[in-house]
Amino acid sequence: MPRLKCIVAYDGTRYAGYQVQPNGNTVQEELEKALAKMHKGEKVKITASGRTDSGVHAKGQVIHFDTNLTIPPSNWKRALDSMLPPDIHIADAEEAADDFHARYDATGKEYRYFVWNSREPDIFRRHFSCHVKIPLNLEAMKKACRIIEGEHDFTSFCSSRTDVKGSKVRTIHQAFIEKDGAELTFIFKGSGFLYNMVRILVGTILEVGRGEREPEDLKAMIEALDREAAGKTAPPHGLFLWKVDY
Amino acid sequence: MPRLKCIVAYDGTRYAGYQVQPNGNTVQEELEKALAKMHKGEKVKITASGRTDSGVHAKGQVIHFDTNLTIPPSNWKRALDSMLPPDIHIADAEEAADDFHARYDATGKEYRYFVWNSREPDIFRRHFSCHVKIPLNLEAMKKACRIIEGEHDFTSFCSSRTDVKGSKVRTIHQAFIEKDGAELTFIFKGSGFLYNMVRILVGTILEVGRGEREPEDLKAMIEALDREAAGKTAPPHGLFLWKVDY
């Protein structure tokens, strides 16, 4: 039975996150509904690279599933896309190796977090970026980014609601900020990320940008191995799962 | 009684247009509700530079109203803004002359229309730009823009549902297209615009871009003085009322 790998984009605004759960509509549910329609009502099990929280978006979520349909791989993208609501889009679909696994085979991920830094809001970005009214110190935030790069135990930057029981050591290959007018883009590339890790990192770096903390404070925060040491969790709607590497 | 002039931005997605009407929620209604709250339930009459259709957005709609509240003009922006839903924003508020009129004193308007020209949709722009999958001929569309510039009778580019009974002669000072990757921005600056005029112009220019019409065909279309001669009306969600001049 061939295995399909798909790249999925979604606007997370009206979803209770990626993963199926008792309350609320989820992205996975929409994908499962669409696949069930294509498979004459039969349930198709979907595996994603990981979950995303309520309100978080994706440009490049990756999923896999097995199918007995005899659709040529080149037609899968359009066939599945046409069954989905306008806020979920299949950006790519291809046949994968029988043992490809969207979660276990991921070697790295990229997340991006968008901040609109201006006194005036941009209402047209309100679901896709976090509005910060007071001027942020970009140089200080860039310094903070350099401190978090590398291999660290990120316990301080992991929500206490995590279900990770093993090591919280992760490697951030790159953490940097791009500025385009009032729009700041925080880019994080790493081996893997803990629950809420990017949002806690951004929330903390924004505190540095506001002058409430010094960039150097991040060293002690990492060493504390205590969620209480780090800053607030930034809101979900600025965050995008941008890319998954295999 | 002082007269206030406000610049209003709105995301038109969930509104049945600007102007109050029997069915559906409108931007004007939200503004009136907010002003009534501020005026102890008293109804405040609002006049706008013009209406916008269902799904059409505004960066710079202008309204005026009279008020007997003793709020300093510098506090009006925040006071009114705080009463409005997140998809309507007061970008500016100032005291105007007693005889200022948002509609009659307008000397010109700027509209922008956004097209996302790529095989792939950008789901994050789906409410704010019109997706055109097939490649468009930019040079041909630029030629078409130059033909519509100047003073013309735009009867062919006016919806038959207009309530304009007089002259349909209008002057387009500038019509041009900016390209930034897959995003095309159609910019129209003119003395005034008829009902659906920008959307019919864009719909027609897109037919030129697709090779279905020649740029020179626009001359005959203008001369025909017949709505049937021009192209289709482009969808509302790509359109922004960008600026009103006084």
UniProtKB/TrEMBL annotation, chains A, B:
Chemical reaction(s) catalysed: uridine(38/39/40) in tRNA = pseudouridine(38/39/40) in tRNA
EC numbers on record: 5.4.99.12
Residue ranges of domain Pseudouridine synthase I TruA alpha/beta in the record: 7-105, 144-246
GO MF, any single term: RNA binding
Active-site residues from the entry: D53
Residues annotated as binding substrate: Y111
GO biological process: tRNA pseudouridine synthesis
Keyword Membrane (UniProt): no
Pfam family, one: PseudoU_synth_1
Top-rank taxon, per record: Bacteria
Assigned keywords, A-Z: Isomerase, tRNA processing
Biological role: Formation of pseudouridine at positions 38, 39 and 40 in the anticodon stem and loop of transfer RNAs.
Family, per entry: Belongs to the tRNA pseudouridine synthase TruA family.
Subunit field text: Homodimer.
Family matches, as HAMAP family: TruA
Official protein name in the record: tRNA pseudouridine synthase A
Organism (species): Halobacillus andaensis
Taxonomic placement: Bacteria, Bacillati, Bacillota, Bacilli, Bacillales
